Amino acid sequence: MTDGTENPGLYIHFPFCRKRCGYCDFYSITKTSLIPGFLDALAAETELYRGEFPGFDTVYLGGGTPSLLTPGQIEILLDAIRTSFPILLRAEITIEVNPADLSRDDMTRLRLAGVNRINIGVQSFDDRELKFLGRRHDRKQALSALEAAAAAGFDNIGLDLIYGLPGRTFDEWMSSLGLAIDLHPAHMSCYELELKPHTPLGRMCEQRGIGSHPEDLAREFFVRTSEIMEDSGYIHYEVSNFAAGMDRASRHNRKYWDHTPYLGLGPAAHSFRENKRWWNHESVHQYVRDLKRGKSPVSDSEALVAEQLALEALFLGLRTRQGIDLERFRLRYGIDLIKEKGRLLQEWSESGLIDIAEGNVRPTRSGMAVADALVVL
Amino acid sequence: MQDIRNFSIIAHIDHGKSTLADRLIMRTGVCDTRTFKDQMLDNMDIERERGITIKSQAITLPYTARDGKTYTLNLIDTPGHVDFTYEVSRSLASCEGVLLLIDAAQGVQAQTLANLYLAMEHDLEIIPVINKIDLPSADVDRVLEQIDSELGLDPASHLKCSAKDGTGIDEILEAIVERIPPPVGEADEPLAALIFDAFYDAYRGTVINCRIFHGEVKAGDTIRFMSNNSIYRVEEVGRFLLSRQKRDKLSAGEVGYIIAGVKTVSSVSIGDTITLDERPCERPLPGFRKVKPVVFASIYPISSDDYEDLSDALDKYKLNDAAFIYEKDSSIALGQGFRCGFLGLLHLDIVQERLEREFGLNIILSVPSVRYRFTLKDGTVLYVDNPAHYPGPMAVVKSEEPYIRASMMLPDRYLGAVMTLCIEKRGVNSNLRYPSPGRAELSYEMPLAEVIFDFYDRFKSVTQGYGSFDYDLIDYRPSNLVLLDILVNGEKVDALSQIVHRDRARARGVQACERLKEEIPRQMYKIAIQGAIGGEIISRSTISAFRKDVTAKCYGGDITRKRKLLEKQKEGKKRMKMVGSVSIPQSAFLAVLRSDTDS
Question: What CATH number is given for B4-179 in this structure?
């Protein structure tokens, strides 16, 4: 939780993928011929916000698959950003990469261009699982990408894994997780697969009568993953995120979770400042067209009222190990949680869902597993 | 008076009564298609949505017949559900004839028969009308046979129509003029007017719909309600075309409205006789009785802050629903609320829906109950419609519960299943007739409590929708009654208590626990639901705690989507009532009355 004076974060949404993964519901398209036009538009969008934000201390190049860009294009892009915005020297600059895309030399160039954190979309070390998910890389490529990143001099390497694939046992999940732990990355995101009905994988599973893990099993995966990660020296600092030390936690993502301002550029990107959130159209075409005409690509915005901000702070706070600082919550959102929800908090605490100590409400491992349900109560 | 015809349309539910009424209105030119709102007479949203006429209403249709004369046709609409039989009977008492509408595909049903009997009691001219002849499944020959054998009417007297496409409407209008007799009555005798409906108008107070049998009434007259001798001064009389049309007077034989500064609808009793104060008629018109509620339930606001709003809403609602009664009540589990009486479960549903829709309230209804009669050791007789007031087994020497006579019509292939159901529902003294080959008319005497407990749904389901059902209250009969309590996490929820027959208690306890298990959402902890009789636990179910609900990603800055989802869930929670640490949804209280055999 912040008082809103922290340095903002900058997010760039690169909305292209070589091919769409069946489970993904983020916005991206496969028509990579539009990339040059997109980059021009992006440069134009940065101009719209010139002078609007104080120094950014994080830059996050996500997507989509930003590793489809050549190192040269990434260098140009980062230069353009540095020209338009104050980027602090100590800024965390992250890029998401697909294991199939970058060579060791490419990675070295990125590091020299200022990227200091690399997040590799491994998802699994099991080729059958990778196929099921519709990924275009295999286990071998995943391992060599991690090796290449380390060899290129990155010491802040993150990798993403997905668990809870239908019909997969915990032991099968452990073979990927265990291998990842053995590689000692600085950061790991372990996501439970969500079968969303509007994704191809979701539809396919529904047609074949395949479901996600039942709640009990999902909880077991969640809790045991957390235990194993923490036993291996990682901090479970957010529902799906683990860091080898708090200094290795994703500085950028944490901004989303504590109402720090952020600016999102690119189609479908979200931005937040003070009590306002706005987001761009989910269309590369419209994005490019709007910016060509000097128009803002913003699709819509909302001004959050205190109650909404508080609800967000509550559910986001309960997703993080750091939890909610009661005094800061009161100052920022005008709600004294102890006074208004004291009985509920007491019950949660007695049920082992949260710890209340030193003016903080922190979810326990079991509390994190039910964070969404808690805030609705 | 020779040019007046007073008539009703009677039919089983969904046989097309409202559609036919609309057709008649359009054909007589009272309104054109442009101003025509679907199903004019059902002017409340709920009525339109459910297709059930709740409040009766009258409309005057000027009609120029083939003989060249202009007639005044007064169509008196009747409510079409078993809960409102008395209101139907008062409407019929105001008529000289009826159109008995029968669905060409469904044929004669229980309410067709029940309504026919009502019409016969009033010696009305009956015109059988076969509707929906445009349906591919229409079987006019079969219906004609039923008219002969089951209704005992002359099949040659029938008319055919399709209210939907307008076929046969002219013939119906002609038949009304030719076959329904004009009213008789003396305009110079003392006023005798039958109240068949009343509703509340925000500007004028209560508008009384009545049929003048004798005498006349005009603005300025002082009228008297004969049931309670209350006196009012007439402000306006008139009749309904599509809106109120003021007239100088209403005379014998006519149907119209009276506005007389009556503040609430409850001050007016359907079936009462209006006369003139200074020149009263000798005796009231026959058939009056006070409508008594038979189903009771408590209403609580979900948030106790809304108590005052609920209180206001009930006051306002009551203005327009004389059959609805309520008084203050409080529950240990649910706090301050109101105990309410209804004509039946449908009436209860309608009240709940209107309170929520028209007044924007979130309310909880307790488990509905009938009114039991207990004789105590000291000889006092206690009527108990709220299980919370059950006097306890030690104090009671005699327990009684209300019985009804259920009349059912069904294809005989379902007879076995229906009889099994009726016996399960403690039905006795059955009576079986075969009015025509393949059709059975079955009657049983049953406890009313069994009927409100999911009887109707199950009856529909075992007869696959081909059975029809009607009932009358008959009397109180001795019964072995016990109080079934429900405990949620060890805490007694008095609003879930039921008075039940001892032999059924265990089964009902098991059923209630199972239903609640489905209705109460998972919460943080394991929740135990128990059924108990006098402290002895007889049934139990467990709701396991929720396990994992948190979504993996909250990412990329799109916090809005996630928040909106949670806001929606929170909104859903608002319709739940916290009992101790457990939120119980509104639906749970009524669900206790449903069995799992519903399909």
Answer: 3.40.50.300
